Amino acid sequence: MKRVHAIISGQVQGTFFRAFVNRQAHDLGLKGWVKNKGDEGVEAVFEGPDDKIKEMLELCHEGPSGAKVEGVEYKEEKFKGETGFKIIY
Fold first, then answer.
1. Catalytic (active site) residue 23
2. CA distance 48 to 40
3. Of 48, 49, 56, nearest to 74 (Cα)?
4. How far apart are CA 81 and CA 48, in angstroms?
C-alpha cells in the first residue's frame, strides 16, 4: 500500500473538482481526502494500491469538464492507514 500527497494547480476551484476527485477515489477504492487550497489549487491525499493511485493521478490531470488543470505535483509519503475518503471543507 502506498500514500501520495498531491497538489493540483490551475482553474480547479468552482468546477466541482473536489466532488470529481471524491467520486473517482471511491470508485477506485482509495482512502484519503481532498480540499481546496487558499491559492485556488486543490490538495489531496490518496492511499491504496500503486496501480489505483497512478490511475487517480491520471484522472486528476483531466479533471471534470470546466476545470483547466495546469499541473499535478505529488510526492510519496509514509503510509498512515486513512479510513474512507472525504472532502475537507
1. no
2. 26
3. 56
4. 9
